[in-house]
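Wed. Picked up where I left off yesterday with Cadherin domain-containing protein. The coffee machine is broken again, so keeping this brief.
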Amino acid sequence: GNAKLRYQITSGNTGGVFDVEPEVGAIFIAQPLDYEQNKRYKLHVLASDGKWEDYTTVTVNVVNKNDEAPVFTVNEYYGSVTEELDGSPVFVLQVTASDPDKDADQEALRYSLHGQGAESEFIIDEVTGKIYAQRTLDREERAVWRFVVLATDEGGEGLTGFTDVIINVWDINDNAPIFPCPLSCHGDVSENSVIGTSVMEMTATDLDDSAVGQNAVLSYRIVGILDVTNSKQGGLAAFSEMFSINPTTGTITVGLGGLDREQIESYLLVVEARDGGGMTGTGTATIQVKDVNDHAPRFIDHSCQARISENAEPNAEVLELAAEDRDTGENAQLTFSVVAGDQEQKFYMVSHKQEQHGVLRLKKRLDYERHSEQKFNLTVKVEDLDFSSFLHCMIEVEDYNDHAPVFIPHFLSLAPLPEDVSVGTSVARLVASDSDSGQNRDITYSLSEDSDTEGLFTIDQSGVLSVARPLDREKTAQHQLVVIATDHGIPALTGSATVQLPLLDVNDNGPEFEAAYSPVVFENVAGPQVVRLNQTSTLLRAMDRDSPENGLPFHFTVPPEYRYSNDFYLQDNLNGSATLTALRTFDRERQKEFLLPIVMSDSGHPAKTVTSTLTVTIGDQNDHAHVAGEKHISINSHRGRMPTTVLGKVYAPDPDDWDNKTYVFEGHMPR
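Structure written out below (tokens, as returned):
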């Protein structure tokens, strides 16, 4: 259809004298000719196949006679010529025509060749009508040539007849088979495919004529199979029976069972195509073996164990597991999970499918003090789309020092202890407990320094509290001791207990003067007189630092040698007080003070008796005049210079010593 031509006269047809058969191209007379009116017409003719077009010019001469155009013996001539012939020109065929005009000169006919390839690939002898191929032809470029041959009478000046000439180019086997993929054709097949499974079409083309002869009839065979996987590493060719090819269609199929991608991932096939003339061409086919999930994943490690502190935060990494799967692609994407040994769901797995490893992470907090959480025997599963494997992982939880020591009870009230208890006496035993393990539960006992500032007590590492130094109830009647238990964890934690220890009084303190008495008896006063012990009272009173049962009532007396003294008399009032009486007149200038031993007893069992000295001062009266005195002072000066210097008190002799004297210079005061 693409070679169907239509013809049309586009210009030069004056008066519409001519017309053309649109499908044949025959120009015919449509109106009567008038030689006298127009002797020549120059027609422009268009030939078109619907897409492409060409023009030619047809000159029509009108003659005054010669009414019949030459006629060819046949309307269409067929010829043939073999391609690639040398020795041109090569005779193809001969056309012949005759002139029907009466008495026409048949020798005056002249032939001409028209169409694509005329005068180039083909020529015609204008006298004989013989057509020659003057160039070597290639059927693969053009298999059929079409021409129009014109026969003109009167030596080429008269009427013209025409005929069609069709020349076929005969094929020779000058083209080898060619495969369409220049470098390599590609196909794929699943591993473990059965014998006869179609892999790919390996079809070649041959440019020779397939309609005539065997030049383009192809047969196929495999001439070599190479293991591409190992050839990259210098491997050897694989056995050639792994694949087979249909010799007629070129379809490659599986020739042997046992395709295993894990051993060989791809094959390189060399295929030969041979035509009927014996020419061959080769092509290569790369066949990829597609993975089938036929291998179970395996853990790389055969054992698994890890340790984690109970203090670890949720999502903390516990361990990382790696697995391998000899398959590839989605068949080698691995998922990890914990399937047993974790009833309380303390752990979870994070899968990195592409990288084929998983991370075991902590999901909930751990408590080592719970026996069930000290050790986990986990079963971890790794799986691909179809297969799975298991691994047992032993996870040991390490104790963290998260429990402080605890005393039970944390407050201990002890029975009163005599204050004169011996040093080293055990008072109590305290025991603390710690829920942690190992060194986190090892405990060291100590006493808070704030509760025992004087170090009166000590505690050993078994928790026994003992007296370390003598006790004194009068100083501290009750001790509040804080016992501290410190574990050996890092960081260490502490717990405490309070021990309340009251002391029983022992009569170890005698009576004491209630106040610091400083009695004064003035000289020159006649006795007897009651001595005033201070500004407010004439009573001598005592106190006792012991408890009341070892105190009042007190008894007062003086040593026997003082009982009959002429100076003072002590009266026990039998109510915890006593009265002192001065029996005579005193002279301060003879004796300024008297030291009286006062014997005081308390009511303890046994009673405690002590002797305290009461100092009685004789008060001074100004009963003596002072006399003249003199004083010699020696001083040193340095080079006549002397700073202001205190020289001393003025010496003024006077038996009295409580009087107040004033001093003034008498007469001129030296500078």
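Quick read: The first strand starts at residue 6 and ends at 11.
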